[in-house]
Structures are given as C-alpha cells and as structure tokens.
Amino acid sequence: MKAVSPLVATAILLVVTVAGGVILYNYMMNTLSSPQEYVAASVVSAKMLIDDNRTILNVKVANIGTADVTVDEITIVPDNITVKVNVVIEPGTTKSFNLVFNQPLDKSIKHYVIAVYGDQETEPIPIRVIG
C-alpha cells in the first residue's frame, strides 16, 4: 500500500479545519444574534396633590426592558392602598398617569409608591407632596 503524500494530507487537513471553523462560526453567530427579550420597569417620579376630600397621585413609569410592560397596580405604602390600573408601556418609553383617591392622605407621613407589573414590582420611590 502506498501512503498519502504529505501535500495531499496537508490539503485535506486544511479543508477539514476550514469547514469546521465555518460550521462553528455559523452556530455561534445564530446563537448570539437571537434577541433576548426581558421585562423591566422603573418608577421615575411620583407627585401627590392632597385636596380636602381627595388625593391626586401622578406617577411616571419607564420601561427599561426590551418587551412591553403592563403595569397592573400601584401600591402606596405605608397606607397599603392598592389601585388597579392597566397601563401598557412600550420599550424605551415613559408614561405618566394620574390616580385619584377619594380620601386625603396624611401629609406628615412619608409615602412611597410601588408599581406592580406581571409577577414583579419596582423599588419603592418616595412620593413628593406638592401644594
């Protein structure tokens, strides 16, 4: 039996190496280029106007994720007041909305707002009292 010449063996090894590299490159590029969507929101600001018989709360929520966020409820602590809302925020945008309560909140207590979306919630943000 005759052996394969060194030139042919080098060419075969080179072709196998290049083909393997192309396959590995295509696999990695397809894996890394697939978009990963995640949901994340943050309360940007909260302002509260307390009238004689009611409270108006303005909340700004930013979507810092890559998928739509639906804010389901707003919670005010320490009073544990929960208001159901249905606000959809597109990725990279901020929405402002008002909530009206038929009770005045105590101005002397520091209040915080939490936005609940899906099974997640934002960090408590202090509410600034105006007026």
Structure write-up:
It is a single chain. With 131 residues, the chain is an alpha+beta fold. The protein has 2 domains: 1-34; 41-130, Immunoglobulin-like (Sandwich), CATH 2.60.40.1890. 21% of the residues lie in helices and 44% in strands. The protein is built from 1 helix and 9 strands; from the N terminus they run αβββββββββ. The protein has one helix at 6-33; strands at residues 41-50, 55-63, 69-77, 81-89, 94-101, 112-117, 120-121, 125-126, 128-130. Strands 3, 4, 6, 7 and 8 form a 5-stranded antiparallel sheet that branches. Strands 5-2-1-9 form a 4-stranded mixed sheet, with no helix packed on it. Strand 6 and strand 7 (120-121) form a beta hairpin. The termini are far apart.
Helix content: 10-25%
Point out poorly predicted stretches: none
Q: What is the CATH C level class of the largest domain, in words?
A: Mainly Beta
Radius of gyration: 29 Å
Q: What fold name stands as the CATH topology of the largest domain?
A: Immunoglobulin-like
By CATH, the architecture of the largest domain is named: Sandwich
Number of helices: 1
Total DSSP E strands: 9
- What is the first-to-last residue Cα distance? 99 Å
Outline? rod-shaped
* Number of spatially distinct domains: 2
